[in-house]
Amino acid sequence: MTVDTGTALMTAAPAIELWYRMPSISDGGKPDERALVIAAQRGSSEAFAALVRLHQRRAYAVCRGIVVTHEDAEDAVQEGFLHAYRALDRFLPDQPFGAWLYRIMANASLDLVRRRKVRDADELPETVALPFRDPGESDELRRRLSQSLTKLTDRQRAVIVLHDVEGFTHGEIGGMLGIPEGTARSDLHHARAALRRMLKDVRSDL
Amino acid sequence: MTDLRLYSNEDDDVVRGLRALYAAPEGDSYWNELESRIMARVAGVELGWWSELDRWMRPAMAAAAVLLLAAGVAMFRAHEAETEMAYDSMLSSPTVPVATAIRPALQDDREAIIRFLFGHK
Fold first, then answer.
1. pTM of whole model > 0.80?
2. Residue of chain B with shortest Cα separation from A47
3. What is the number of other CB atoms lying within 10 angstroms of the CB of residue A146?
4. What is the arithmetic mean of pLDDT over B4-28?
5. Distances A91 to A35, A78, A100, A101, A173 between C-alpha atoms, Å
6. Minimal Cα distance from B55: which residue of A?
7. Which end of chain A has fewer beta carbons closer than 10 Å to its terminal beta carbon, N or C?
8. What is the DSSP string of A10-45?
9. Chain A positions in Cβ-Cβ contact with residue B40 (cut-off 8 Å)
10. Using the 8-state DSSP alphabet, how is residue A108 labeled?
11. Interchain CB distance below 8 Å, B24 and A141
């Protein structure tokens, strides 16, 4: 059978273009992150949306560990992804994208915390700390836990939540918050001790 | 390592409390909506003047390079034509023998020197 080479190439061109544009899918059906990053760097908003889908839950967890409320975490996630989008051309695809992104998320959250502090200092000089707004906050322990968490330093609270709730390692937390691993370890120790101290009485009542 | 567990067993309720406080929203609809909001903001960034400028940067650079090249070629050709015209005008002008044109002047100089050396006679 003879095949006209020109016709064959013309038929194959859209498929080749599609293959070039769309990131590959690895065995588990999960998009290849590196390919997504490269496609996003070339201007594919679909690829960036796929990266958002892949990382938004973890990104939210990072932000939630640092800011005080769910609403602030949402804001920080959006800011973080915007920063990441703007800085995408400076990212080297061979590096782990998640670590780079979560550091951006942590920075966006820390910025938000700083801005909130300035605003609160201007508006509410008598307020010590705003309580958590959690609809599921029903029992005494949880209420006291919320109060106790506001008494930790921002960094201690971030470290304990990122480590004990989200499961990040000391090294990862240090990388995200821009502190040495040993400092993250020590913050965790102090945060746990402080929580134990503050919750001692309520726990003995339970 | 000691940090593998947050507290001792009797503190598990504190861990549970922490996890409940920091639980991420459940349900795909929430995450789909958040993704939409993020992408809407990203699209807003794309529409900004700086990105528009960035989009036009490469074509503008290419156009500038082409213009520079064209200007260079034009200048080279103009210079070439000018040189050619100069040669043409020189070659087409009436020929004067070099020796006859220079000699009288040289001769005058020589005579002036001799007159000077031998006392203005």
1. no
2. B39
3. 19
4. 72
5. 13, 19, 8, 10, 20
6. A43
7. N
8. HHHHHHHHHHHHSPPB-TTS-B-HHHHHHHHHTT-H
9. none
10. H
11. no
